[in-house]
Amino acid sequence: MATLFLHHTSYLDHLTPVGHPERPDRIRAIDRILEHERFQSLERDIAPMGRIVDIARAHPSDYIDMLHTSAPTDGLVRIDADTTLSPGSWEAVMRGVGGACRAVDEVMEKKVTNAFSASRPPGHHAERARAMGFCFFNNAAVAARYAQSAYDAERIAIVDFDVHHGNGTQDIFWNDPTVMYCSTHQMPLYPGSGAANERGDADTIVNAPLSAGDGGAEFREAMEVAILPRLEAFSPDLVIISAGFDAHVRDPLGGLRLVEADFAWATAKLMEFADRKCEGRVVSLLEGGYDLEGLARSVAAHVMTLMTA
């Protein structure tokens, strides 16, 4: 079976102010590098529109309605200081949700080995009823709830290696014993959450903060000591990766020093774990990554590793 790559041109239509790091060129950079001949065996598909019923498992209806009605017909509307809606944003966020759910379908139904959905805007800062940090709907949370609803998956693990802590994912699953959220991230850094003692009401939150200047050695130690043993004990039915690549040494929004080999290593470790525990079921969803070269090279390493399954 193949690795599935989900994408859509609408991701280019979510516009942000001039100079904003979360910009359409991120998708162009990913598309260009995945056109290389070494990725020709990728199975490619268009991300469908998401469904409100799927979003509503992670976000309340009044919040969904507020975002929908706030989307402008022209110009930009600020939701907070760095989170902006444009005329093309609603389709982009809905396709991000749709791509995440389609990835779950394809993996759970064993049509593909694993899947990578490259959407923007990202999602892991979106709390239950709050858009922030470039994010509107939490794609990983929606995907987890969808897997539980559509496929009776009992336990879902979400592993997040973005340089920023996924406060939104933590918020949504804080008191849920059926979803484990694990994160490596730089601290202190936006959004300010993610201390190791933030464990959730059901002890299913695992935070492994790193310090500015930390590189591959510290990252790998955090994964092997803090996160992988907890995943082993939790024994999930599906692994969802919140794949942020802004921990790359080139990225302007963080101070970690990871390189492509570190992302490939983490991907391989999570695949090995999934092979043992959940029949290899891995869904990867794009989060951050704002240096275009660092993003493209890191995505290439991540996807190439997924393709080795």
Strand adjacency order, main sheet: 2-1-5-10-9-6-7-8
- Give the structural class: alpha/beta
Task: Count all strands and give the number.
Answer: 10
Shape: globular
CATH class: Alpha Beta
Number of helices: 9
Question: Descriptors for this entry?
Answer:
8-stranded parallel sheet; globular; 309 residues; 10 strands; single chain; alpha/beta; two-stranded antiparallel sheet; Arginase, Chain A
Condensed summary:
The protein is α/β, with parallel strands linked by helices and 309 residues long. The protein has helices at 25-33, 52-55, 61-70, 89-108, 139-151, 167-172, 216-234, 260-277, 292-306; strands at 3-7, 43-46, 77-80, 83-85, 114-117, 156-160, 179-186, 205-210, 238-243, 282-286.
Description:
With 309 residues, the chain is of the alpha/beta class. It has helices at residues 25-33, 52-55, 61-70, 89-108, 139-151, 167-172, 216-234, 260-277, 292-306; strands at 3-7, 43-46, 77-80, 83-85, 114-117, 156-160, 179-186, 205-210, 238-243, 282-286. It has a single domain (3-306), classed as Arginase, Chain A, CATH 3.40.800.20. Strand 1 (3-7), helix 1 (25-33) and strand 2 form a beta-alpha-beta unit. Helix 7 (216-234) runs parallel beside helix 8 (260-277) and helix 8 runs parallel beside helix 9. It is globular. The N and C termini lie close together (9 Å).
List the helices and strands and how they pair.
Layout: E1 3-7, H1 25-33, E2 43-46, H2 52-55, H3 61-70, E3 77-80, E4 83-85, H4 89-108, E5 114-117, H5 139-151, E6 156-160, H6 167-172, E7 179-186, E8 205-210, H7 216-234, E9 238-243, H8 260-277, E10 282-286, H9 292-306
Parallel strand pairs: 1-2, 1-5, 5-10, 6-7, 6-9, 7-8, 9-10
Antiparallel strand pairs: 3-4
Helix pairs in contact: 1-9, 4-5, 7-8, 8-9
